[in-house]
């Protein structure tokens, strides 16, 4: 039987996820007597027809199909195209972002004009858009996967008949974290990811203002989207206000070959997200045995339910809470070691190979 694996993103987190899992999907397909083909673009009738698929797996995120705004959202049209090209094929998706019926555009970290516009949209428009984001998305496919238990109910209520939870995979576990720390130098607090309000770089800077212990903050990332430039500029202004330039490094984009080096130098990995759909940057940290400090968002707390002591939580959006947890850990090497061991244990349970097997078990449910 033929699997068509679709990821319509040229570069970004979803493409990284897809590319990392794809070799294991191929290997699992062969072991089960199937054939798998990848399509890394928006599917056309011609491309889908040529693959002659029996089932199709799509990596879904609202931004990959134009926008979540109804007039620009192309996912329903994409499904229509696929059905036209392969009417016999079953279609499933990995839902990398699931919007709940009470979702509203976040306003924290935006400029004053953006805050006003978002509040107006939240009040007058979003209630009428929810159906498109739920039934109009998950109700038109044959199956859907999510990374978190907290998301599954939304898919079920959207009319998706077959759903399952498969956690975001971790790369093969290996002890990288902290192996290049230099005795006597200030501890490094590492935050991986592009500058965007959701990632919470500004919150870490606010916590840094409270931290008396000498530390060095490394923001491993730069600006990816034009709309995030204003947020980056505000973070830069806050660095100047804190007179903390000497305590901060902004790397810009980090090539794959240099990622391990930053984790090796780190004393703690900070994930102060204000919202998340299941970030791959956390699983990157777990796979390297990192001691992680993360916000207590529901999707993050799901991780703690799977592996006790996997990370040190703090209250989302609270700089004082973040500072308290960082200070506690920096004074307790044993707790950092415990977090590191828990991270490696979790990574060993969620390898790409195990994740690929779970995918094919789910496909069997769809095809039957």
Account of the 3D structure:
The chain is α/β, with parallel strands linked by helices and 368 residues long. Helices cover 45% and strands 14% of the residues. The protein has 15 helices and 12 strands. The protein has helices spanning 13-31, 45-51, 75-85, 112-124, 126-133, 135-138, 149-157, 201-208, 229-242, 256-265, 280-287, 298-306, 319-330, 333-349, 352-367, and strands at residues 2-6, 35-39, 55-60, 90-95, 143-146, 163-165, 188-192, 216-220, 248-250, 268-271, 292-295, 312-314. The strands form 2 sheets. It has a 6-stranded parallel sheet with strand order 2-1-3-4-5-6, with helices on both faces. β10, α11 (280-287) and β11 (292-295) form a beta-alpha-beta unit. α8 (201-208) crosses α13. The mean pLDDT is 93.
Ordered list of secondary-structure elements with their pairings:
Elements: E1 2-6, H1 13-31, E2 35-39, H2 45-51, E3 55-60, H3 75-85, E4 90-95, H4 112-124, H5 126-133, H6 135-138, E5 143-146, H7 149-157, E6 163-165, E7 188-192, H8 201-208, E8 216-220, H9 229-242, E9 248-250, H10 256-265, E10 268-271, H11 280-287, E11 292-295, H12 298-306, E12 312-314, H13 319-330, H14 333-349, H15 352-367
Parallel strand pairs: 1-2, 1-3, 3-4, 4-5, 5-6, 7-8, 7-10, 8-9, 10-11, 11-12
């Amino acid at each position: 039987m033929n699997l068509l694996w679709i990821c319509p993103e040229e570069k970004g987190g979803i493409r990284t996820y897809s590319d990392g899992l794809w070799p294991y999907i191929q290997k699992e397909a062969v072991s089960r007597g199937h054939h798998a083909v990848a399509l890394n673009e928006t599917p056309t009738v011609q491309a889908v027809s040529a693959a002659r698929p029996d089932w199709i797996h799509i990596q879904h995120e609202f931004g990959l199909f134009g926008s979540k705004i109804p007039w620009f959202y192309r996912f329903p049209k994409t499904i229509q195209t696929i059905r036209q090209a392969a009417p016999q094929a079953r279609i499933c998706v990995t839902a990398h972002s699931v919007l709940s019926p009470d979702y509203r555009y976040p306003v924290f970290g935006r400029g004053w004009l953006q805050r006003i516009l978002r509040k107006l949209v939240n009040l007058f428009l979003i209630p009428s858009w929810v159906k498109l984001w739920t039934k109009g998305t998950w109700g038109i496919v044959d199956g859907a996967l999510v990374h978190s238990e907290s998301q599954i109910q939304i898919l079920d209520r959207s009319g998706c008949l077959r759903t399952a939870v498969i956690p975001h995979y971790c790369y093969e576990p290996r002890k990288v974290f902290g192996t290049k720390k230099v005795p006597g130098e200030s501890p490094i607090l590492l935050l991986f990811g592009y500058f965007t309000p959701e990632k919470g770089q500004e919150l870490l800077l606010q916590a840094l203002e409270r931290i008396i212990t000498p530390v060095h903050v490394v923001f491993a990332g730069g600006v990816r989207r034009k709309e995030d430039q204003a947020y980056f500029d505000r973070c830069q202004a806050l660095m100047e206000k804190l007179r903390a330039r000497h305590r901060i490094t902004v790397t810009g984009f980090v090539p794959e070959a240099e990622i391990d080096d930053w984790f090796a130098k780190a004393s703690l990995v900070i994930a102060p997200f204000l919202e998340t759909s299941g970030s791959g940057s956390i699983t990157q940290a777990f796979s390297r045995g990192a001691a992680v400090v993360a916000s207590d968002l529901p999707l993050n707390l799901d991780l703690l339910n799977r592996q006790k002591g996997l990370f040190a939580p703090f209250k989302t959006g609270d700089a004082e809470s973040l500072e308290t947890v960082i200070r506690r850990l920096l004074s307790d090497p044993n707790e950092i070691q415990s977090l590191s061991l828990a991270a490696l244990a979790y990574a060993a349970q969620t390898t790409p190979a195990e994740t690929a097997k779970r995918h094919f078990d789910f496909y069997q449910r769809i095809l039957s």
